Amino acid sequence: RPWDKPDIPISDPACSILAKGPNFAITPKLSLTKLKERLQTEIAVLAFGLRWKAAIEKFGTGIGRSFDHLKEECKFKLGRRAPPNDDDDAEKSIANFVSDMGKIMKSINRLPFTQNTTSQERQAIVDLRNRKDVIITRSDKGGEMVVMHSADMQRLCADHLEDTTTYKKLKKDPTSSLRKTINNTLEEILTRREFPPIIIRRLKTPPAARTQLFYALPKMHKNMLKIRPIVSASGGIFDRIGWLLQFIFKPLLTHVRAHICSTRDLLEQFTNISPTDMQDKIPISFDVVSLYTNVNVCEAISTVLSYILKYSVNTYGLTTVDLRQMLKLVLNNNVFHHPELGVYQQVRGLAMGSRLSGTLAILVMDRFERKHIFRAITPPLPMYVRYVDDSGTIVKDTNEANTILHHLNKQHPSIKFQLETPDEEGFLPMLDIKLKFNSDGTVAYKLY
């Protein structure tokens, strides 16, 4: 491939351990003393949580029944205030657990330890980490480990962020002022809607919340080297308010006709069709071009709020006016930083990495499909499924596929599709598999 760099020297031991993939973990070597110290710490954390849980159940929190599920799912920490320890059942459970773990630790004289790497492989990883001219990352799809020049990745990120229709470079990081705005907005809205104080405190953005981080994964499955941009919102200023909105909106996905959650769902949809209906047919896929950045924010907000009204999901007393205000705050202030390139704001579309982006994009596509696929295409397609921006269906031949593609690309100013057809062997790549129809109409597949 044109971007392969033979000038990056990688030793055989380095290649050997990198080939194990990004999920491989080197066996840690722990002393028995350090393990006991770690166990004592974890037991203390567990006891802290159990005591608070018992106190909340015993004395209540002012939470009405409609808030019970929200309270259970909201896992953000409240702080370090010590809980009461006067619940006999909780204290007995903690004491029994501590006693049992103590007996187990006394029975361990030494920790079994087996290396799963060679000394040469471990040294090779240290050597690669110490190099400032290369980065080690994983590919966007396929799970390969990628070693590339740091300058190449920085150039790709800089080229991507130069798109002034999507990004704006900022002179100053507004994270601190945004945190205050978020907390004031939450305090005002949630108090007005009689949210319990304990939940309001959990949902407020803490002072330690960081600026969202921009990074990228290389798309090694493309003919030209490209990147998938990601804005990491984990631990950022919009993490908690984003969690609340996503918690409310997620049930709407059950009403999305084409939505699938996994490869298993994909295969079930294809195999549920009679083989006779798939004879002399081919599978095809339509990929939405840069879906997240091409979703109009106003359209996303109006779509999700219309679905809220239509399907009557539990909003915990929040009105559509409240939800609109919080959505605009989150989606119109997508600020992030790149360690070398500075602070930016995304001014168009949704951010890859945000808690809300996936759900909002799926709902916008569902609205599009209801109007332009399920109602407009005749005769109806035998089946149609979609995983975020990757949809699959069945057609007679490539002529029919191109006719559908032409129809779809006329319907929306920014949502455009690319057609993918089976390769020379008849296999169509979709999600993490390749599938094809045998001559008798049955489905064959293999890992992609």
Q: What can you tell me about this protein's structure?
A:
The chain has 448 residues and is of the alpha+beta class. The protein contains 16 helices and 14 strands. The strands form 4 sheets. Strands 3-8-7-4-5 form a 5-stranded mixed sheet, with helices on one face. A hairpin with a 2-residue loop joins strand 12 (428-430) and strand 13. Helix 1 crosses helix 5 and helix 2 (32-59) packs antiparallel against helix 4. The longest helix has 28 residues, at 32-59. The relative contact order is 0.12. The model is unreliable at 60-65 (pLDDT under 50).
Brief description of this entry?
By secondary structure, the protein is an alpha+beta fold. It has helices spanning 12-18, 32-59, 68-73, 88-106, 119-130, 150-161, 175-192, 197-203, 239-249, 263-271, 275-278, 291-294, 297-311, 320-331, 357-374, 398-408; strands at residues 134-138, 145-149, 167-169, 212-219, 226-232, 282-288, 334-338, 342-346, 384-387, 390-395, 417-420, 428-430, 433-437, 443-447. A 5-stranded mixed β-sheet has the order 3-8-7-4-5, with helices on one face. It has a 4-stranded antiparallel β-sheet with strand order 9-10-6-11, covered by helices on one side. A 3-stranded antiparallel β-sheet has the order 12-13-14, covered by helices on one side.
